[in-house]
């Protein structure tokens, strides 16, 4: 698409390194406007505010709110001419079906889809041993994630990709370990989040991250986490409406219902 207008947002805040890497990369293929949170909004999901404050920024706009706030404000008020919403690049992967509704990054792409605008969510996988040093991740580590996003954003419209998918969820390993291969995946349904109680404290634990670091995961071939653990770029084409086909069992139950 010529003269592509791209709204870029994230959930790490407008000052994050991954956001600037993605903004710069997408500026090579279109006109980019930032509409991003003022500070970290990680894991807020599709939280939406009633009122937000906006101020101008060198890259576009800063919103005192969530990623969903940014998308709504951007598409409805600040830059309604937007062709594509891209969220990221998140510091930390957003993989697995259970994470899709929890991630602020993915939620921004989902919100765009509900507004009738295609979306892309892009995240960088940081192995567990490196996560403790996440603040030291260099900008070049985002190169594979940015390149994959730019490539798909540049070609998706002409190829008709967004006629069959509402949004894409991209996860990429750091550039130094990325094979350069892109794999079409589905979100893994393996779920291991649990809790551990010690007196009046309950810790939520997710062993999947340690398993990823060890390369020993239960996720099958074709899933996002399997691609990542094998150092490939994962792209999951997804749809936004949360619907299912008519279920006759429920239809029968509904037909037999009477108000007590």
Automatic annotation (TrEMBL):
One molecular function GO term is: 5'-nucleotidase activity
Superkingdom of origin: Archaea
Catalysed reactions, as listed in the record: a ribonucleoside 5'-phosphate + H2O = a ribonucleoside + phosphate
Locations listed in the record: Cytoplasm
Q: Which Pfam families match?
A: SurE
Chain positions recorded as a divalent metal cation binding sites: 11-12, 42, 90
Per the UniProt record, which EC number(s) apply here? 3.1.3.5
Question: Per the record, GO CC terms?
Answer: cytoplasm
Reported cofactor(s): a divalent metal cation
Q: Which residue numbers delimit the Survival protein SurE-like phosphatase/nucleotidase domain?
A: 6-188
Q: What does this protein do?
A: Nucleotidase that shows phosphatase activity on nucleoside 5'-monophosphates.
- Tell me the protein's name: 5'-nucleotidase SurE
> What does the organism's lineage look like at the top?
Archaea, Methanobacteriati, Methanobacteriota, Stenosarchaea group, Halobacteria
